[in-house]
Write a structure and sequence with these properties.
Number of strands: 10
Strand content: 5-15%
Oligomer: single chain
Shape: globular
Helix content: 40-55%
Largest sheet: 4 strands, parallel
Number of helices: 10
């Protein structure tokens, strides 16, 4: 009898996993949040392949099959991954879409004005709070840089409402495990809050050190932690910058910049050329989307932790 009971109990996680909603995600940080909420009950699918460009990605047939089989799509939104919007529009089944940028309580920022590097710790970036009507969801965005900046996962305070929304979406499909999803979300929120405090302490000594990045993706992070982010070479989707913008960035680098940071997947030559003849240091390549990470429940935490380590490594002079 004891053996029979033990055998039945050993089968429960497999049964729960079989009944869990099938979830697709767009980028590693979102995968990490969803995997944290699902816990042992199931595992989401990450669509973005390792090393791929989140702004411009071509889905393979097997990934289209994952979308066709999914119950829920949890993603940042079409502002970041328009290729997923197009795939969802073409899906042949009733699938729940949860774009995290639309979740109540999300802090959203607008892109800075084009060709206008900032020297005021991101304070020239207008805030776009709480569904104010400026949320463009056209299906064929070309990443209008006067609109919403989609890199909102880099503000860890956005994780709390997102985790609650993820737990609610899972529970709506799988009410039997609603309590487990809620408990997992609460545990993930505590982990992220603890890391947020650690990051704030680590960055405090370098808050006044100016830096330039390759890709205009960091204002959520720099605004949240009060860093002196002074601009980027490429626009929000890492598209090529015009001559006027490059001149403006070069002038900024020559003034009061300590470090420049290249980015994974992008050639660092142009950024490094801007530092020639200066004492500006080149930091480690940043990975704001976790493009080089293996998908894991820790992916959200890993993105923030790795970004912090790269910034402090150069800005502190270490």
């Amino acid at each position: 009898m004891r053996y029979i009971i033990s055998s039945i109990l050993s089968m429960l996680p497999l049964s729960a996993m079989a009944d869990a909603p099938r979830v697709i995600t767009d980028i590693p940080p979102v995968y990490g949040l969803v995997a944290s909420v699902m816990g042992t009950l199931g595992q989401p699918v990450l669509l973005l392949e390792k090393g791929a460009d989140e702004h411009d990605f071509q889905l393979r047939p097997s990934q289209m099959a994952d979308i066709a089989d999914a119950d829920i799509a949890i993603w940042i939104g079409p502002e970041l991954t328009p290729w997923l919007q197009r795939a969802l529009d073409g899906a042949q089944r009733d699938l729940v879409s949860l774009p995290l940028l639309d979740v109540d309580g999300t802090t959203r920022l607008k892109f800075a004005a084009k060709d206008q590097p900032s020297d005021e710790q991101g304070h020239d970036h207008a805030h776009d709070h709480e569904n104010d009507g400026d949320h463009d969801h056209g299906h064929d965005h070309d990443h209008d840089h006067s609109g919403t900046d989609p890199h909102a996962w880099l503000n860890p305070q956005n994780a709390a409402p997102w985790l609650d929304a993820i737990a609610a979406a899972l529970s709506a499909k799988d009410s039997t495990n609603a309590a487990a999803y809620a408990a997992n979300a609460a545990a993930a929120k505590a982990q992220i809050a603890a890391l947020d405090a650690e990051i704030a302490a680590a960055l405090a000594p370098v808050k006044d050190k100016g830096f330039v990045a390759y890709h205009d993706a960091y204002q959520y992070f720099t605004t949240h932690y009060g860093l002196r982010y002074m601009g980027a070479v490429a626009m929000g989707d890492a598209s090529a910058a015009g001559a006027a913008h490059l001149r403006a960035v070069q002038d900024t680098v020559a003034q009061d910049v300590v470090c420049v940071f290249p980015e994974v997947q992008h050639d660092a030559d142009l950024l490094l050329q801007l530092t020639e003849g200066t004492s500006v240091r080149a930091g480690a390549a940043l990975d704001p989307v976790g493009a080089l990470l293996d998908p894991a429940a820790s992916s959200y935490l890993d993105v923030l932790r790795n970004l912090t380590n790269a910034l402090t490594g150069c800005l502190s002079g270490a």
